[in-house]
Amino acid sequence: xxxxxxxxxxxxxxxxxxxxxxxxxxxxxxxxxxxxxxxxxxxxxxxxxxxxxxxxxxxxxxxxxxxxxxxxxxxxxxxxxxxxxxxxxxxxxxxxxxxxxxxxxxxxxxxxxxxxxxxxxxxxxxxxxxxxxxxxxxxxxxxxxxxxxxxxxxxxxxxxxxxxxxxxxxxxxxxxxxxxxxxxxxxxxxxxxxxxxxxxxxxxxxxxxxxxxxxxxxxxxxxxxxxxxxxxxxxxxxxxxxxxxxxxxxxxxxxxxxxxxxxxxxxxxxxxxxxxxxxxxxxxxxxxxxxxxxxxxxxxxxxxxxxxxxxxxxxxxxxxxxxxxxxxxxxxxxxxxxxxxxxxxxxxxxxxxxxxxxxxxxxxxxxxxxxxxxxxxxxxxxxxxxxxxx
Length: 390
Ligand code: LRH
Ligand code: MN
Ligand code: MN
What we know:
Elements: H1 3-15, E1 18-21, H2 44-58, E2 63-68, H3 76-85, E3 89-95, H4 113-133, E4 137-140, E5 145-146, H5 154-171, E6 177-181, E7 191-192, H6 197-207, E8 211-216, H7 226-235, E9 239-244, H8 261-273, E10 284-287, H9 296-316, H10 319-327, H11 331-343, H12 347-356, H13 363-370, H14 372-379
Parallel strand pairs: 1-2, 1-10, 2-3, 3-4, 4-6, 6-8, 8-9, 9-10
Antiparallel strand pairs: 5-7
The protein binds 6-deoxy-beta-L-fructofuranose and manganese (II) ion (2 copies).
């Protein structure tokens, strides 16, 4: 690789920003058990303290996504200032209309207008919070759906969804975006109201330019070609964000790149090919993960590293040679070019990038040596640990 090409790869890696989710630092679990861990944050402020450690060691994770009400505070401007003092900014505001009894039959698609109103009020509250936090993105995921055929009218639910989305879209400022996430199933098991990218895309298209799709990598049927979805949405200017995580079975929320690093590479290659790594492309590379059994801060660090390594490999693909092989119909040659990049050990390259950013060549070793885990375990005693719903 020429000096110039290497410099371009490094520059792309330097400018990539990976957004970490506040809830990854909190306790989480399955419906069977939540295993509490020592030192887990008791409030959003402490989640930001942990996120700052991730950024200090990796150099590329200065943005933290919030989830409301899990991160509810009295003064969001103060939270943003607190983040700023730690070299962070606040990222997407994730709305939560799935954890209250009223939402048993849905939120914005509920048959009862009073429940729909309540859900919409929450979405509007999130927009107000974005004003105070300086967030660009409102991220919406709806658990809405039905469990049994005939339970509710599928078309009417789409009408209600459209009504709520357009009301909230109207409320956004000119620089703010609505990001609509889809998920095949769970908690609804028969018909989810936004089950796939096509549904999300169709709603976003109607809403307007600032409505974009979020691809959560854990939200598809097994075997789905996610990189095709990414390529398609990017081509249409409708890819807004990722919720990165990995899965073996359903929405496992395991560390990004852990279950299938090759899939993450294929996704990142399509992002690169579609111009999604350009600084003005507006693609948010968020993690959406839960660390149920592994220590949380190093798990987030590992995930950030995995995303960076997949990105580096994607950047190493020799695009000219690939295009030539594709034009020539050289099936094996083209595939080989992609595989060569995937098989490259990019760890030294990414370590160089980190060093240039003033972070650590080996973030996990640096974190272990920092004493942070011992410190938070000793200091964060008393009070209630944060978790899903706290
Ligand atoms: C739903 C989801 C969505 C939520 C998050 C906690 O499964 O992916 O993004 O906000 O989990
Ligand atoms: Mn998600
Ligand atoms: Mn999910």
